[in-house]
Sequence to fold (170 residues):
Amino acid sequence: MDQILNKVGSYWFSQKANKEINSVGDDINSLSTSIEGGAKWFVNKIKGKMQKPLPELLREYNLPVGIFPRDATNYEFNEETRKLIVYIPAICEVGYRDSSVLRFSTVVTGYLEKGKFVDIEGMKTKVLIWVKVTAISSDGAKVHFTAGMKKTRSRDAYEVLRDGVGVEKF
Fold:
């Protein structure tokens, strides 16, 4: 009986240890991504290429300024390809006034067009289950999220910058 309990205890302990080690690895990857984004921003600043704040860039493309969390300040934007890469310090969720929730990975990518953010990677929304957001478009007072199906919401809910709430996994 003691041998069985020892084996069960050893197995349980090794599973917990593996889970903790994986968690530390994920934390290191997240920190690495944040440092990388900050380093690129710093290098661009030294080169004299100061980019505009992310909300200002979104406004130029006729998108609501609050579709990313408030602490998503580091980004890269290639004006030729219009590829946007947004660095977020940690995986988080943002709740909006209309009761919708968006979940963000530490890196969100996509392409900006006038009134659209398309081919999105790193963003989900809750529709019964978490579903990948593939496109966001805006026209007038409405914002359309494509996540398997198109969901239309009031633009007003996304015009305010909101803090992200940390979550464990994307």
